Amino acid sequence: MHVLSFAEGALAMLGLVAVLLAYIAEAILFDRRIRSRSFPWLERIQMLLFGILQLRGTH
């Protein structure tokens, strides 16, 4: 029973790490576009909250 709960926790942690890496990659890919905005920190916060869908609508 303990091995199963450890595996579930490890998979959950792996999922969170994957999401975090996706956000970091997204920020790196769109850094030039974000820096050209008048409020780049607001754009980064929006990207963190809403993901790629927010940036797709702004081009």
Task: Characterize the structure shown.
The chain has 59 residues and is mainly alpha-helical. Helix content is 83%, strand content 0%. It has helices spanning 2-29, 31-35, 40-50, 52-56. 2% of the residues are buried. The model has no long low-confidence stretch (mean pLDDT 78).
Distinctive features:
mainly alpha, 59 residues, 83% helix, 4 helices
**Unreliable parts:** none
Hey, roughly how much beta strand do the residues contain?
A: under 5%
Total helical elements: 4
* Helical fraction: over 70%
Mean pLDDT: 78
Helix vs. strand class: mainly alpha
Order of helices and strands: HHHH
Total number of beta strands: 0
CA radius of gyration is 16 Å
| Overall 3D shape | rod-shaped
Let me know the largest β-sheet. Answer: none
- N-to-C CA distance: 51 Å
Q: Summed up, what is this model?
A:
The protein has 59 residues and is mostly helical. It has helices at 2-29, 31-35, 40-50, 52-56.
SSE order and pairing:
Blueprint: H1 2-29, H2 31-35, H3 40-50, H4 52-56
